[in-house]
Design brief:
single chain, alpha/beta, Aminopeptidase, Glucose Oxidase, domain 1, Transcription Elongation Factor S-II, Chain A, 40% helix, globular
Length: 761
Amino acid sequence: MKNVALVSILLLLALPFVPFGNTSTADEPVLFGFSSESSRAERQWEEKFKAIPNPQLMRDYMQRLSARPHNVGTAYDKDNAEWLAAKFKEFGLDTHIETFDILFPTPKERAVELIEGGPKFVAKLQEPAVAQDPTSSQQSEQLPTYNAYSIDGDVTAPLVFVNYGIPEDYEQLERMGVSVKGAIVIAKYGHSWRGIKPKVAAEHGAVGCLIYSDPNEDGFKQGETFPAGAWRPRDGVQRGSVADDPIYPGDPLTPGVGATKNAKRLELKDAQVITKIPVLPISYGDAEPLLAAITGAVAPRTWRGGLGLTYHIGPGPAKVRLKVKSNWDLKTIYDVIGKIPGTTNADQWIIRGNHHDAWVNGAEDPISGLIAVMEEARAMGELVKAGWKPKRTIIFCAWDAEEPGLIGSTEFAEEHADELKAHAVVYINSDVNARGFFGAEGSHTLEKFINDVARDVQDPETKLSVWKRAQLRQIGRSDESAGRQEARSRPDLRIGALGSGSDYGAFLQHDGVAALNLGFGGEDGGGIYHSIYDDFYWFTHFSDTDFVYGRALAQMAGSAVMRLADADLLPFEYGNFSDTMQTYVKELKALAQKSRDEIIERNRELEEGVFAAITDPRVKSVPPAKEAVPPFLNFAPLDNATESLARASAEYKKALEKATANGGAAIRKASLIEANRALAESEHKLTLEEGLPGRPWFKHFVDAPGQYTGYEAKTLPVVREAIEQKQWKEADAGIVVTARVLETEAAHILSVAQKLDAAVR
């Protein structure tokens, strides 16, 4: 590895040095936020940077980091953190390890048994080693199959099949006259984050929850199973946390504050995020005899999975015993922090991160993304040796304890909240990376910026820009002509909103720092997520086998970090943001109207007696009670707010055009300290200190994880979720407070425009 690194340094230093300003063609676009002179310099440094990331080094990093299981609390987790810190120091970064002590339960007793309704069956709850896969045999070190933060329990009850176990499924069960009160439910993975399934089950009176991966979505119906192919084998199990993270992520015992040694901790009984009922994940091999023993109504067609049996709902006659007992210990976690100090704008921070812990060996999740972060850090270290000096400080982070609940990043963001609010400009995250198409989610004020970066990075297989390839995919996949037309004609591809599921959460949704989540994927397929088969053997046979998409991620994210660190004027843009807010408000109006229309139609059917059975005709269906028709919501405050945003963004565009005229001559001469500070603060204005109603940890009023989706974002969440839950008073109140937040943002954008205009006058 040292020889490869040395060759890279020599190649970098051998690149011809030409004085900045003499190499770019006359028609080369000036980078957003730069003068023509600084843009030419930046492009030269970025080209040198993009030549450095090395697929062989990435392969070597992955092999080392995923060589042994390294979940929280293991010796190899600490060893990896120390190795990462040593590498960051070797790359030239000012590096330290920051520790926290967090609650991390591990199982000591687990059992699932079919005791009535069929042949006695005891679930294996074990993933077998595979001869071809060397690390799958490390069974003494592997974390057993379980769901972290399940409450302890030993329950015996009839079994009910609840499809994906999301609210809509329970509505259908109610219409069918099926209750889960006093039952154990069995749900398929999918259609929500796993922690939602026991949450909703408990709300409906269930006493236990089993979650399994059905082969229809995650197994042999998708393709050859491991080791012959990439998909989940019969005995593969998805581990994972079931803490109620939509209330708050991070250490369950220290919400809102860093989990330092002396932090004040809640009693376990007072931690809101621990499940109310015991939960275990099982394989589809273990699920099959349990499902086969259920009778009662045949499941609706859309509920049926890929196993060779008739899917019944129950309850019974299958009766199951479920037992979970854990060690509820504190474990030390290790965040690795490396810094490249800035020069003229050192008090503004660009933060880049991914996590290093895994449920088992974790080659895909998270090492596939972490190796790109490592090569970005190495490449920038080489640039510094060659004379590059970023204006802003760059901080590289390898987080621990992401898997149990975004804990390492959350504790860091809580502990350093005041510093981050004062200094952090953007947080750029990656997690899993694979062969395929570029994707981005994040703050919409960065939408134009990340589109511009994507136009300057080449896809390793097609040799198109990664932006063009993503655009062509969007044109090909859109179901509607309007979507295809927008992908063809809109200057920038839309980026998704951020919900939850990775380490951007605390930065964006708690501290109000603008964020991006970047990665490639969509072409490798596979079903080894959170299993013992997510390892070096699987990744090098079925995913980014030559690590060229790891290099593409390093080139993409690293270029974004450099461009943000070097920009004369921070490249936030408000036209796309304003357009997106208008889109979100239109969606809310449509959602409210749809809910109203559905209630009116259902009530009409009930009045006319035309309610029909929706499943097995032998089962008497129970019509729902009539619902009150909801009032019309007054969206005028949101309409006014989006109009204010449109006007403010137009004013900023005018100021920006003036500043960038004549090759940004005004930018070269101006002092942009105040304008840059105001730009960095714009995301903060989308937060309120009191937080979202009922979950004050989340303070962002544009993006939040859904209370009943988990990972999936809910945009303008206070209003959207109130409409979805038919809480009309709360929806009206949410419109007012959300509009106030957007009006504050509009006023701030106007002040940014004024500061920029004054700076370049």
